[in-house]
Amino acid sequence: GHKLNDARLMVRNLCERLTTKPLFVSDELAHYKRALAEQYHTVVPYERTGQRGRPRKPKVVIDDDLQYCTVHKYRRNGRVVKTNRTVIFGDEVKVKEILEKSPSRTINTAYVERSNASWRLWDSHLTRKCLTFCNSLDFLKAKLAICLLYYNFIRPHASLSYAFNNDEGKKILVPITPAMAAGITDRPLTLEELVTLNCVH
Fold it and tell me: Whole-angstrom Cα distance, residue 7 to residue 168?
């Protein structure tokens, strides 16, 4: 259905931007597993036996370096009471090694959920169970693009920014945006600069 095609499109779009395979984590929506398997696999044909009959279909082998985990949350009265974390592709040892080098030491969906909360906060058309309907998909995409630009290029993040004391003992805050952390820009940009795209290298 359309949900599977959406997952395929999202995974394909993401993977085209990656230079290495990260640790993929999602909820238990089966479409993500299928989309990742379609993106990262090798088709291995079986050797011919020389016997009559239709040959066996080639075997689909998932890439060894694909690490994909799911998180399932059990809720009671609207509160999470238990969390199950499962390694779908890859192995637990490799996943643990990746987590030890990351800001988060557990398999979780906290980062994407935090991002989703920001998009819903900044664009009411994305809010669940509300009457703010969007009549144009192109308009919705354009608004979301502005939110993403603001989030990555303009808005400093507290988790990335840092402070230091200068020679006079005055505390100086150095604002860092995700684009700065990724080496795309060397300072927070203005909306005017982003629209003209003159200082994004």
Answer: 54
SS (H, E, C) 85-142: EEEEECCHHHHHHHHHCCCCCCCCCHHHHHHHHHHHHHCHHHCCCCCCCCCCHHHHHH
Coil, helix or strand for 81? strand
Q: Interior CA angle at 108 toward 177 and 33, to 5°?
A: 105
pLDDT computed for residue 92 by the predictor: 93
How does pLDDT run across 71-86, given as a tens digit for each residue?
999 989 989 899 999 9
CA-CA distances (angstroms) from residue 56 to 40, 41, 44, 48? 22, 18, 11, 9
C-alpha 10/C-alpha 3 separation (Å) is: 10
User: At 155, is the secondary structure helix, strand, or coil?
Assistant: coil
Q: What is the pTM of this model?
A: 0.76
Low-confidence ranges of the chain (pLDDT < 70): 1-2, 197-201
CB neighbourhood size of 34 (10 A): 14
Residue 155 burial by CB count (10 A; 0-12/13-18/19+): exposed, middle or buried?
A: middle
Gap between the Cα atoms of 57 and 191, Å rounded: 54
